[in-house]
Amino acid sequence: MDGLQWITVHQVQVSAGGELTGMPGLMWRVIHHGIWVVYLGVVQAIISPESTGNVAWRTPMAVAATSWFISQTLLFSSKKLSPTIRMASKAVHSSSQSITPSSSPLKVVDSHLHVWASPQEAAEKYPYFPGQEPSIPGDLDFLLKCMSEAGVDCALIVQPINHMFDHSLVTSVLKRQPSKFIGCCLANPAEDGSGLKQLEDLVLKDGYRAVRFNPYLWPSGQKMTNDLGKAMFSKAGELGIPVGIMCMKGLSLHISEIEELCTTYPSTVVLLDHMAFCKPPVNDEEQETFSALLNFSRFPQVYVKFSALFRLSRKPYPYEDTGELLSQAISSYGANRVMWGSDFPYVVPECGYKEAKEAVSLIASQMHVSSSDLEWIMGRTAMQLFQHS
């Protein structure tokens, strides 16, 4: 069904009281809505509270039975489930294998970049959205050249505004390079509600692994916490994909929305793009906003992207003033919830793609970030979250 070989290797006993037993060493947590069984962020099965007796779920052969140890990566369901085990195999990428921090070779992962059609591609097949024609190149060939020169192995492609809700160009890239790229689609908050079905189709049919919420695309006067926003946010949790949130006009405008969504739907992972656009604070108001960003770490499902440093820094390359942002993010979130991203192609005219990657190492050295933490930031966090190898 999903291109993987599956074998049944796990069988547990669920008591009438909802207790999960039968797996030595398994760390688990139960809430009244049900149990989500997750391996390194990937939902393998959902057991409803009505299920009792022996239950079993299947695991890709790449995942050894002895490697199941679930603790902080356990996620929870936020809605009533049927009294059966519902497999979430769609959450497992067809080319993915299990990865563990101790044994996998390090891959450098760019957690945030864009790709759009070349002028020729736009004229022939993948038109730009009216008024969003790009002023700089961002085609696949250019991206691959930059990644090769910089030694970047994989990347998360975020659907660009230049193609708005037409995902055909990015989808074509994902199909051409499935081992190198995964996709983050763009949520469509149109009042007709069509965005909810589009989100589901992009994930289940086209294999997208994340969704971006751009609050400035919501209808005028409405917030991400309107009925449709909540429905899409909840759906993302059900589908096992993170929601990336772009706070381009400032985190302070969206703190209450993010808090409400994280509190109401704890099973939905959140990615705060570009450190939620927090610059190194220079006054009390900015310090308060940055403190709010750090305080979001109390939600275990929230991650931050140390990305687009040229947007965060008040100084020229190599953006050394962002070092304190990184240091405090690591202290609050842990390096395993922080990931680097370039914001290609916008970064190219600012400092260059390879230089953007190198800046992180320079900043990490300046702030005495450990080599282990730097490995998480430069790849392991994204690899674990997206199960991409």
UniProtKB/TrEMBL annotation:
Gene Ontology molecular function terms on file: carboxy-lyase activity; hydrolase activity
Pfam families: Amidohydro_2 (PF04909)
PANTHER family: 2-AMINO-3-CARBOXYLMUCONATE-6-SEMIALDEHYDE DECARBOXYLASE (PTHR21240), CATALYTIC_ HYDROLASE (PTHR21240:SF19)
Ranges in a coiled coil: none
Oxidoreductase as UniProt keyword: no
Keywords: Decarboxylase, Lyase
UniProt xrefs under InterPro entries: ACMSD, Amidohydro-rel, Metal_Hydrolase
Family that this chain belongs to: Belongs to the metallo-dependent hydrolases superfamily.
UniProt protein name: Uncharacterized protein LOC105051020
Keyword DNA-binding attached: no
UniProt domain Amidohydrolase-related: residue ranges: 109-386
